[in-house]
Amino acid sequence: MKLLISFFLALPFCMVATKLSYRNYKVYKITPHDETALKELQEWGDEAMEFSKYQFWSGPTKVGSETNLMVAPEMQVYFERLLAAMNVDVSTMIEDVQQVIDMENRWVRVDEPNPVNWTVYNTLDEINNWLEELTVEYPDVVEILKPGKTREGRDIVGLKLDFSPNVEKQVVFMEFNIHAREWITSATATWLLNQYLRSEDIDVRALAERYTWYFFPVMNPDGFVYSHEVNRMWRKTRTRYNIHCWGADPNRNWGYKWMNGGASQNPCSDIYAGPEPFSEPSVKVMSQFIESVQENMVAYLDFHSYSQMLLLPFGHTTEHLANYAEMMKIAEIAMNELKSVYDTEYVFGNVAETIYIASGSSMDWVKGEFNTSIVYTYELRDKGQFGFLLPADQIIPNCEETLKSILAIFREYEALYPGQNIIRRDLG
Questions:
Q1: How far is CA 87 from the centre of its chain?
Q2: Dihedral sign, CA of 225, 241, 250, 354?
Q3: So what's the pLDDT on residue 421?
Q4: Could you say which of 50, 104, 175, 379 is catalytic?
Q5: How many C-beta atoms lie closer than 10 Å to residue 25's C-beta?
Q6: Nearest-angstrom CA–CA distance, 290 and 286
Q7: The whole model's pTM is what?
Q8: What is the pLDDT of residues 313-351, one digit of tens each?
Q9: Backbone angles phi, psi at 420, to 5 degrees
Q10: Confidence (pLDDT) at 425
Q11: Is there a contact between 158 and 212 (Cβ–Cβ < 8 Å)?
C-alpha cells in the first residue's frame, strides 16, 4: 500500500520562522523479513520529502537489516497499523525526539560563546573562532584556509596543519559535517586537531608530524547553521529549488558516477543529487580545493554519522576497487583497535555491499578521479539508540576510539608500503 503524501504535509521546514519542535515524534526500529516488506519500506522512503511528517534516519537496505523511521505524533497510529500488516519486527528507538534533542547538548548557553572543549556541540562561529585562535597560538604550524563561499555567503573554513612547512610531505585530507545534522563529526574534527597539536602521546605526535594535514570541520556551513538555528534534523545544503524545497544532498552532488543509483532527482528528497554535478557552491569550491592538493594526497578520510561503520569505495557498484584486499585488511585491524578502547563494534566493507547503493559521494569522487591510496568513510557512533542525536558526553569517548583506529590505519599502511610517507624534498 503506497502512502499518500498529501496526508503527511506539514509547514515546509524552510518556512518555519522559529526553531522546529520534534515534541512526541517517535523513532521506530523496523526490520523487514521478506522482499515485499522491504519494497514497501523503500517506497515510503522514495515518497518521504523534507516537508513530510515522517523521515527515515537510516534507510531500508536489505532483508534482515534494521531501518530507523521517525514519525510525527499524529501519524503514529496510522504507521503502526501499516507495519502490523507487514512481515517486520518493530520496536521503539526514541519515544520523544525533542526530549533527546534537549538532552543532547546540556550545556546552559549564556551570552558568551561556548568554548571548544568537547563537553558541548559547538556552533559554526564557535568552531571557526577556535580555528582562528589556533593560528595565533601556533603560527608556524597551522594556517587558516578559506577556499570559497557557500550559497548563503559563508566562508568554508579549514586548517592546514604542518609541523615542517618547508618540507614537502604527503597529504591527508579530513572531511567532516558535509551532512548538516551529523554534529558528532565536527566535534571529532576539533578534538583530533587538538590532539595533533597538544597530545603528549608519542604515537599521536609522530603521526601528526609525518604528513601535511587538511582539516575541514564543517563542509556544509549553510546546512550546519540551519540545523542549529531552525531544524535539528536538516541534512542538505540551503539552495532554494522550488517554493517548498530547499537544498541538495552535498554527498550525492560530486561528479563521479553522479546519479548512478541511490540518489534522487526530486528536489524535495533528502538525497536529491542536485540538477547537475557540482551544482552546490560548497561542493564545487571544495572539489577545486581538493584537486589543488591531490598530487601528494595519500589519504582521504570522510566522517559521517551514524551506524558504526568504516566504508570503502565505491557506492555505485559492488565491484571491488584496485587495492580492496589491502584496504579491507587494514580496516579489520583498525576496527579491532577501535573496539579495544570502549568495546564499540564497527562493521566495515564496500559501501554498496555493506549498506546501500549511493552514487555521487565525495569519497567515490576522490578515489575515482585520483586513485588516492587510503580512502575511507567513517560512520561514527551510535548504532540505534540515539542516532544523529548522540549526547555530548559521548563526544570524547567517540573521539578517543576513532583516533586509535586512525593511528592503526596509517601504521598498517606504512608497514605495507615502507617509505611511502618519506619526505620528498626540502622546499628551502
A1: 31
A2: positive
A3: 57
A4: 379
A5: 24
A6: 6
A7: 0.93
A8: 999 998 898 899 999 999 999 999 999 999 999 999 999
A9: -65, -25
A10: 54
A11: no
